[in-house]
Specification:
49% of the residues lie in helices and 13% in strands. It has 16 helices and eleven strands. The strands form four sheets. Strands 2-5-6-1-7 form a five-stranded parallel β-sheet, with helices on both faces. It has a two-stranded antiparallel ribbon with strand order 3-4. Strands 8-9 form a two-stranded parallel sheet. It is globular.
Length: 378
């Protein structure tokens, strides 16, 4: 029996849980020709939501849809490589005529992709060193999207990466091209809220007020519980509502982590028994033990103040007033200023995230498994 709790790859429609309101909002917003900024904690399901929206008839039948995750990129050259490769990959199944139009427009890379002379199959052989003039190639890419025979939607995940590129004015360059386009909409997605909010909400930034903003929160508990029990039932298996509730509450509904626990419970526990709360606890312990070595490596890469600050926030779960004297004394930290400096670094490393709660920020460890591992070890 196929495991219905997907933790990698694209989730097939029968195994996709809820997000009905978010899906409809996306479709309406895109049909109204607005760009979108989507933020969420890491692994809340933003990539799966974008893929799900792409599969809806209103989008699938009317647009070319592209998605690329630029988290690994560190320069404009790499961004151009990722964009061009995604366009090429999506267009290959559309046929030779569509591919030819794309190839004809990307003059700066014309010698690096095309067709295999023997098989006749399309080939993509662009290497980073082939991109000599990234701004020119970027211009050609946007020109193609603008002239494509169907409207386009391009999702760029972990969009905040462009803020760290060594080239100057990348934001301004991208915004200059995008604001002139009428045939392509963009979904900017990411998990580093403090950078993205600054990029799109600061009047001094090129992308100021250029996208409709939405935040992806957790799926309601009753909806997820019903979904999980239904998936087990379809497979001839049983899980108690209390067990699902425990898995949900452990991670406050954080989709990936709840899915991960249930994925492992489904895969490794006796299929003839009803999974209960003790099984969920054992499954979680097994996961944390398996991840322990990599988590220890993460901690070893931090200096003392960063490590102590991360531990303190993990102990709190959600930490407000982190630079207050009370917080510093409670966790035997050095000083409010050292905590603030450590937090800035931990945010940059994406080991921390935060939510706005009134006028203050509530910080938490980005990886909930890491948070639990720290709590148990330290």
């Amino acid at each position: 029996m196929e495991n219905p709790f997907y933790i990698t790859g694209i989730i097939p429609e029968p195994y996709f849980c809820d997000r009905d309101k978010e899906t409809m909002w996306f479709i309406r917003t895109l049909e109204n020709k607005a760009h979108i900024l989507l933020t969420s904690p890491r692994r809340m399901g933003k990539t799966q939501l974008i893929r799900h929206v792409y599969e809806q008839p209103a989008i699938k039948n009317s647009y070319y849809t592209f998605y690329t995750d630029i988290y690994p990129t560190t320069s404009l050259h790499e961004l151009v490589l990722f964009l061009s490769k995604e366009i090429y990959t999506v267009l290959v199944p559309k046929g030779k005529t569509v591919i030819d139009k794309f190839l004809a427009g990307i003059h700066s890379l014309a010698g690096s992709f095309g067709y295999d002379p023997i098989t006749g199959f399309p080939t993509f052989d662009v290497k980073l060193g082939d991109i000599h003039t990234p701004e020119l190639t970027l211009e050609e890419i946007f020109r193609y999207l603008e002239q494509a025979d169907k409207p386009c939607i391009f999702a760029i995940d972990e969009f905040q990466q462009i803020a760290d590129y060594p080239e100057k004015n990348v934001e301004a360059i991208l915004r200059t091209h995008i604001q002139k386009m009428s045939n392509c909409l963009f979904i900017y997605a990411g998990s580093n809220r403090h950078i993205l909010e600054n990029m799109f909400s600061s009047a001094a930034k090129p992308f100021y007020n250029s996208a409709e903003q939405t935040y992806l929160d957790c799926i309601p508990k009753e909806v997820y519980t019903s979904f999980a029990q239904e998936q087990f039932s379809k497979a001839g298996r049983k899980i108690s509502p209390e067990a699902v509730s425990l898995a949900y509450d452990m991670f406050e509904g954080h989709t990936y982590y709840v899915h991960n626990v249930l994925h492992n419970a489904f895969a490794y526990l006796d299929p003839d028994k009803t999974i209960d709360e003790s099984d969920i606890n054992k499954t979680l312990s097994d996961i944390l033990e398996e991840k322990g070595r990599s988590f220890a490596s993460v901690m070893n890469q931090l200096n003392y103040q960063q490590k102590e600050t991360l531990i303190a926030i993990a102990k709190e779960g959600k930490a407000c007033g982190v630079t207050s004297v009370a917080f510093v004394k409670k966790h035997a930290l050095k000083s409010p200023s050292s905590v603030q400096h450590a937090i800035n670094t931990l945010l940059e490393k994406q080991l921390l995230t935060y939510q706005n709660e009134g006028r203050t920020k509530a910080y938490s460890v980005s990886d909930r498994f890491l948070e639990m591992w720290i709590y148990r070890i330290y």
